[in-house]
Design brief:
It is built from 3 helices and 12 strands. With 234 residues, the protein is α+β, with helices and mostly antiparallel strands. Strand 10 and strand 11 form a beta hairpin.
C-alpha cells in the first residue's frame, strides 16, 4: 500500500511542477520581439512600435537590427534616449512612382545600438518607426530582427509564426476607404488592430486563469496524497 501511495505522491508533485511551467508560458510567449499594431492599411504611412524585451537574466540588450521587408520604401525613426540609430538604404535599379514623386532608394535595415547600459534583464524598450508600406493588401510582412546581448549572445528573430524565435510581423489590410465599403463603413483598420490586440490579451489571460485553477487542484491533490502516505506508513 505504501509503495503505491509513494508513487502517487511523486506523480502528484510532478503534475504540480508541470502546471507551474504551464503558468509561465504566457510570460515566455510575451517575451518575443513584437511590432504593434499587428495590422495597418496597405500603401499608408504607419506608425509602428518595435517592442524589444530582454529575456536574459544576466545580460542586457545592447543592439537591435531590424530588417525591412521588400517594398518598404521609406522609414523614419523616433529618437530614443541612450540609443543611436542608423538607417541603411539600397539604391533601386528602377525608381518607383508614388503620389509624392519617384523614389529611387529603399530602406533595408534599421539598427539601434545602445550608447549606455542598454535594456536590462526584466525590462523592455519600444522603438518608434514611421514607415511607408507597400500596396499589397492581404500580405503579411516579416520584420526579421537580430538581438545582441552584452555577453555576446545573439538571438535571431527570423523564424515563421510558431517557431521558438519568430520574426515580428505586420499584416497589410485594405485601405480604410476600401475597408469601409466592404464592411459597411463601421470598422476601420485601426479598430481591427485594437480588437485583435484585446482578443489576444484576453486569450492569454484565459490560459493563465485555467493554468492557475489546474495548479491549485494539483497542489491540493499533492497535499492529500502526502497525508495518505504518512497515514499508510503509520
Amino acid at each position: 500500500m505504501s509503495i503505491d501511495l509513494d508513487r502517487a505522491a511523486k506523480w502528484s508533485v510532478a503534475a504540480f511542477a508541470a502546471t507551474l511551467c504551464l503558468l509561465a508560458l504566457p510570460t515566455l510567449a510575451a517575451a518575443h520581439i513584437t511590432i504593434t499594431p499587428s495590422q495597418a492599411p496597405a500603401g499608408s504611412f504607419a506608425g509602428l512600435a518595435v517592442r524589444v524585451p530582454t529575456e536574459s537574466s544576466s545580460a542586457s540588450t545592447t543592439k537591435v537590427a531590424l530588417q525591412m521587408p521588400p517594398g518598404v520604401l521609406s522609414a523614419s525613426y523616433e529618437p530614443v534616449s541612450g540609443w543611436s540609430t542608423v538607417v541603411k538604404k539600397n539604391r533601386l535599379t528602377k525608381p518607383i512612382e508614388t503620389d509624392d514623386g519617384p523614389i529611387d532608394e529603399q530602406i533595408t535595415e534599421v539598427v539601434w545600438t545602445a550608447t549606455g547600459p542598454g535594456i536590462a534583464p526584466g525590462q523592455f524598450v519600444s522603438f518608434g518607426l514611421s514607415v511607408l508600406l507597400p500596396k499589397m493588401a492581404g500580405q503579411t510582412l516579416p520584420f526579421k530582427a537580430v538581438q545582441t546581448y552584452s555577453n555576446g549572445d545573439v538571438v535571431r528573430w527570423i523564424g515563421p509564426a510558431g517557431a521558438s524565435e519568430p520574426a515580428p510581423t505586420l499584416t497589410l489590410t485594405a485601405s480604410e476607404m476600401a475597408g469601409a465599403s466592404m464592411h459597411g463603413g463601421g470598422h476601420k483598420a485601426g479598430s481591427a488592430s485594437t480588437d485583435e490586440h484585446s482578443d489576444s490579451s484576453g486569450s492569454g489571460e484565459d490560459v493563465a486563469f485555467i493554468a492557475l485553477v489546474v495548479a491549485v487542484f494539483a497542489l491540493i491533490a499533492s497535499i492529500w496524497t502526502l497525508v495518505l502516505v504518512r497515514r499508510g506508513r503509520n
